[in-house]
Amino acid sequence: MTTLSINGLIVNRSGIPVVRGVEIEAKSGEISVLLGSNGAGKTTLLEGISGIIASAAGEVMLDGHDLMRARAGVRARAGLSHVEQGRTVFSQMTTEENLKVALHPDATLDEAYALFPELRQRRDIAAGMLSGGEQQMVVIARALVGRPKVIMIDEMSSGLAPVVVSRLMTAVRKLADDGMAVILVEQFATLALAIGNRAYVLRRGQTVYDGGCEELARDPARLHRLYLGEASEAT
Ligand SMILES: Nc1ncnc2c1ncn2[C@@H]1O[C@H](COP(=O)(O)OP(=O)(O)OP(=O)(O)O)[C@@H](O)[C@H]1O
């Protein structure tokens, strides 16, 4: 059982606080959905958690270990995986080579192909030749075979057809059902809330909602208000 606890995290960009005291708890078997309008600080929050950028203050605790001062590589080895925006495949390498780069000694490529069977047929194709959806599958599968405890996925759906997005959502749910703690940053709020457990809505770097996904999915007007900031209703 894994627990990632983020407490009072403050992350600056060019000296300006962009993430301002966020609290998040991600647990094995659960998807924590991070929502918020453009510029709310979602990507910066994930970068602060994975250590790509230094945080100014707060705590990043993974199973009781304080990672706040650890570098990104150390956090990754401790079990924090960050699937960044932009489907960063190694385009000259084949699908399988992309997966092998990250393969943990205890993991197998079959785990990747079990999550995305469609990648098996594409194993010898250069990743740069794959469709956007397939490239997104490669980067998620590559994270999986690194055997992380927590997987943080940023904007996996952007620019993809709805049928592909649904396919990816199903796979992400399976990751959590298999025991991973998942943090999902997503623009398609309705789809993300449908597969998620706990939701956080960020506005200007602060949490304005922390609660169940179902509750928020049932109240689209409230979700709209939370995004637009017409009413403050931090819980
Ligand atoms: N490299 C940077 N230097 C300075 N400011 C930045 C930088 N990157 C992002 N910002 C600013 O930080 C704020 C939060 O950006 P961030 O990308 O974290 O938001 P987001 O919620 O992920 O939005 P989006 O959905 O647009 O990616 C924005 O105001 C943005 O302009």
Automatic annotation (TrEMBL):
InterPro entries: AAA+_ATPase, ABC_transporter-like_ATP-bd, ABC_transporter-like_CS, BCAA_Transport_ATP-bd_LivF, P-loop_NTPase. Residues 4-229 form the ABC transporter domain. It comes from the Bacteria. GO terms for molecular function: ATP binding; ATP hydrolysis activity; branched-chain amino acid transmembrane transporter activity. GO terms for biological process: L-amino acid transport. Keywords: Amino-acid transport, ATP-binding, Nucleotide-binding, Transport. Pfam families: ABC_tran (PF00005). PROSITE patterns: ABC_TRANSPORTER_1, ABC_TRANSPORTER_2. SMART domains: AAA (SM00382). Belongs to the ABC transporter superfamily. This is ABC transporter ATP-binding protein.
